[in-house]
Amino acid sequence: MAHNAKLADISGIETVKLGFFKEVKRKIRELEASNRELEQKRRDIQAILDGIPDVMAVISPDKKVLSVNKSFYTVYPGVEPTGLPCHKIFKGQNVPCSPCSIDLAMESPTRVSRSLQILNRSGENRQIECTASVMLDSGDKPDRILLLQRDVTLEKQFQAKYSLAERMATVGVLAEGVAHEINNPLTSISGFAETLVLRLGELEALMPEREDISAIFEDVHEFLDTILLECSRCSDIVQNLLTFGHRESKRLTTVNLNDIVANCLKLLGPKLSRLPKDIIALERGGQDDPLVLGHPGELMQVMLNLVGNALYAVRTSGSIRVRTEVRDNLVALEVADTGDGIAPEHISKLFEPFFTTKPPGQGIGIGLSTCYNIIRKHGGEISVESEPGHGAVFEVILPYLSQ
Q1: How far apart are CA 338 and CA 315, in angstroms?
Q2: Residue 166 reports pLDDT greater than 80
Q3: In the chain, what's the furthest Cα-to-Cα distance?
Q4: What is the overall mean pLDDT for the chain?
C-alpha cells in the first residue's frame, strides 16, 4: 500500500538541497577569493620579475623558452621567444652552446651554474654573466630552468681600467726605485769612465810613441766609449719606464711622435733582439717634426700595442713599416705589417672591448679598444685597412701642433 508524502518530508528534502547549494556557493566564493589572491600574487611576482633589469627566462629541459620577463623585450626587441631554442635566440646558432649553462646546472649537485659568455647584442659584443638554476616540481624532480643574464661589460671594463691603472702605478713605483737604485751607480760608473778618458790622454802623452802601446790605448779608448754609451742607454731606458709608468698625470705637453716611436722601440729592444734586425723599417715623411699635444705615456701605450700586434702578425718571417708624417694640419702615424691580414668580418669589431682573434692566454681584447679611447681623447682617429693574406695597416691621425 503506497504511503502519501508528508509536508515535513518534502520540506526536509528542500532544506537539504538549500543547504547543499549554500555550501556550494560558499566554496565558490572561497575559490574565487583564493583565485584572486593567487592572481594578485602572480601579478606581484611578475611585477618583481619585470622590474629586474637583467634578462630572465624560464627554459624547459629540452632548451625551449617557456616564458621571459619584460627586460627580455628591451634587450631583444621584436623577438618572440616562446617555444624557440635558447641558443637560437641568444647566440643565433642552431646547435647548443658549449659549454651550456643549462647542462651545467642539471649536472651540478647544487643545481646552479654560473658562466661568463660573450654575446652579440645589437651588433656589439657584450660580456654576459649567465646564471642557470634548476626549478623542481612537487616531486623534487628537475622540471624547468631559470636563466638569468646580467650584462657585466661596463663592470669588466672598469675592472680592466682599474687593473691597468694599478699595473701602471706599480710600473711607476718600480721605475722610481730603479731610477734611485740604478742611476746612482750609473752616475758613478759614467763619471769614473769620463775621468779615465781624461787621465788616459795624460798617460798617452807620457808614454813613448810605440805601435804596440798605441794599439793598447786605442782598445782602452774603445772600451771606455762603450761603457759610456751603455751607461747612457741604461739611463734612457729608466727614463722611458718613468714616462710610461706615470700615466696618472693628465698634464698634456708637446710630444714628438718620432720620439715616441724611438722610445717604444727601445722598450721592445729585448724582444726585437731575438728577431731579424731589419724586421722594422722606420720612415719619416716631410721636413716638419710630427708634433702633437698629448700625454707621452698614453701615446707610448698606443705605439706599443700597435707594434706588438704587428710583431704577433708577422712572427719572424715578415716585416713591419712604421711611418710618421705631417699632412697639412694633421699628423699621421702608420704601422703596417706583412702578416696574414684580418678577416673582413673582423674589421668592424677590432676596436670593440674584449674582441680578440688571439688564442686564450695571449690576449683578452682590450688593447685596441684602449688605443681607440686614448686616440679619441686626444682628438684624433684610428683606423685599419687589411686584406686577408696581404697584411694590415693601422693609421692614427692626430691634430698637428704647429710651432
Answers
A1: 10
A2: no
A3: 169
A4: 81
Mention every residue, 6+ apart, whose C-beta is less than 8 A from residue 347: 384, 386
Separation CA 341–CA 313 (nearest Å): 8
Rounded CA Rg of the chain: 37
* Residue 328 cell numbers, joined: 697639412
* Residue showing cell 758613478: 188
CB of 280 closer than 8 Å to CB of 320: yes
- CA proximity to 331, closest of 301, 367, 298, 290: 290
- Which residue(s) pair with 321 in the sheet? 281, 336
- Bridge partners, 148 (sequence order): 56, 131
Any residues with CB less than 8 A from the CB of 298 and at least 6 apart, and which? 247, 374, 377, 378
Q: Which among 128, 118, 126, 122 has a CA at the least distance from the CA of 78?
A: 122
Span of 41-45, 96-100, 140-144 with lowest mean pLDDT: 41-45
Q: Is residue 14 part of a domain?
A: no
**pLDDT over 90 for what percent of the chain?**
14
pLDDT at 381 over 90: yes
User: Measured between alpha carbons, how far is 99 from 306 in angstroms, rounded to an integer?
Assistant: 33
What one-letter code names the amino acid at 368? L
CA 375 to chain centroid, in Å, comes to: 17
Out of 151, 186, 217, a domain closes at 151
646547435: which residue's cell?
95
Q: How far apart are the first and last CA of the chain?
A: 134
In the numeric block, which cell numbers belong to residue 193?
769612465
Number of structural domains (the chain) is 3
Using the structure block, give the residue that is written with the C-alpha cell 642552431: 94
- If asked whether residues 188 and 242 sit together in one domain, one would say yes
> Residue 104 belongs to what domain range?
51-151
Shared-domain flag, residues 280 and 372? yes
Amino acid at 384: V
Q: Report the C-alpha gap between 120 and 92 in whole angstroms.
A: 9
Question: Can you tell me which residue has the cell 652552446?
Answer: 97
SS3 2: coil
Q: How far apart are CA 200 and CA 192, in angstroms?
A: 12
**Report field, pTM of the whole predicted structure over 0.90:** no
- Rounded to the nearest 5°, which phi and psi values hold at 133? -130, 140
User: What integer is the mean pLDDT of 119-136?
Assistant: 83
pLDDT reading at 175 higher than 80: no
Q: Residue 337: what are its φ and ψ, rounded to 5°?
A: -130, 165
Amino acid of residue 187: T
Cβ atoms 291, 403 nearer than 8 A: yes
